[in-house]
Amino acid sequence: MYVQFLAVALFIGRTHSLSLQPQQARLLHPKRAHAEQRSVRSVHIDPTGEPNDDQTLEAAHVLQEDGVVVLLCPGLKNVAPTCGQAIDVLADVLVKAKLAGVNLENLFRLSEIIHRSYRRYDIPLSSTKDSKVCNLEFLSFVDSMVKPILGMVYDDTLCTTERSEPHCGKHDLQVIREGLITSIAGAQTQQFHADGPSPGLFNAFIPLVPVATQGTEFWLGSHDDPRFLKEKIPTNPNHISNPVMSRAQGIILFDYRIVHRGRAHDPVESPGPRPIFYRTYSLPGTSADDSHNYSADHSISSLKARSSNRNDEN
User: Fold this and answer.
1) What angle do CA 113, 232, 212 make, to 5 degrees?
2) Calpha distance 158→162 (Å, rounded)
3) H helix or E strand, kind and range, residue 122
4) Of 198, 202, 237, 285, which residue has the fewest beta carbons closer than 10 angstroms?
5) CA-CA distances (angstroms) from residue 128 to 125, 178, 311?
6) Counting Cβ atoms within 10 Å, is residue 235 exposed (0-12), middle (13-18) or buried (19+)?
7) Is residue 99 classed as helix, strand or coil in its secondary structure?
8) Tens digit of pLDDT for each residue in 271-314?
């Protein structure tokens, strides 16, 4: 399957990103004046994957202030899928798309796979169909790390909706999507963008290969100031930082509104594919969704059916 992947994966497209709209400012804490160099901050989580009260409080505070926090946990790599398993998923979908007549040199949006930018692919997954990547032990471990922290964020947020209960609780959070984003050698640096303009959505990224200079780059604090979304280009390079992690060393948890970009995939530094598993969470009462990121023109099966019908007519 890996050889098959290499045969079909070297295709080109043109970079694009989400068009951002101004948002309402939401300041949960007084913002610090930062002239010095800033880095993405990390919080160490117990090896069991369940943060204690102090870890939960610290991670929630960093997430609210910076828009991103890295949750380091040595137990995560033991249950995370392998890079090879993620590559097999991409190879399988690319082969099916090609057989359905998709021109893999162009950007495309299918329900099974989105070619987002040059050599960068996004595959929504299903825990029932993609059990090798979405095994229940792994997903439960991720939830145990993330949900207590987002629950505390929710409890500290001035929500626009009425709450019948004074405490959210980690079990009230919703998982709305999971998948794989994989870049291959030669992928270009993305434009700075946010995944959405509204509060209440969060992404959990788990890199399945080591990331250093080629991972995701974040504009710290940009989630809480509408000026950042209007400009979309960082005015202070000291506020730009990317996490450095070994394989599945932890979770990069970030607000949908934070401005970020995927770095270029240098074939010399990292010749192999670079898969990242992601899981998207929604706070209770959140009206925003991410359907704009996953609208699809067709599915692979519908393209195959259309091709078959044309052949029958001929």
Assistant:
1) 65
2) 10
3) strand 120-124
4) 237
5) 9, 12, 33
6) exposed
7) helix
8) 899 999 999 999 988 876 777 788 777 889 888 666 554 544 44
- Phi then psi for residue 263, to 5 deg, are -80, 165
CA-CA distance, 207 to 13, in Å (whole number)?
23
Are the beta carbons of 241 and 207 closer than 8 angstroms? no
What is the per-residue pLDDT for 271?
A: 85
Q: What is the pTM of this model?
A: 0.82
Which range (158-172, 205-219, 234-248) has the least confidence? 158-172
Note the pLDDT tens digit of each residue in 71-129: 999 999 999 999 999 999 999 999 999 999 998 888 999 999 999 988 999 999 976 67
Distance CA 53, CA 44 (A): 12
Residue 196, C-beta contacts closer than 8 angstroms, at least 6 positions apart: 18, 256, 257, 288, 290, 292, 293
Cβ atoms of 145 and 71 within 8 Å: the answer is yes
pLDDT at residue number 275: 95
CA distance 11 to 295: 22
Radius of gyration of the chain (CA): 20
Task: Assign 37 a pLDDT band (cuts: 50, 70, 90).
Answer: confident
Tell me which residue of 227, 231, 282 sits closest to 256, measured CA to CA.
Answer: 282
Sheet with 68-72: strands ordered across? 42-44, 68-72, 250-255, 201-207, 274-282, 174-183, 120-124, 114-117
Q: Report in angstroms the alpha-carbon separations of 57 from 43, 44, 150, 167.
A: 10, 12, 10, 15
Dihedral, CA of residue 93, residue 96, residue 100 and residue 105, to nearest 10: 60
Beta-carbon contacts of 12 under 8 Å, excluding residues fewer than 6 positions away, are 105, 118, 119
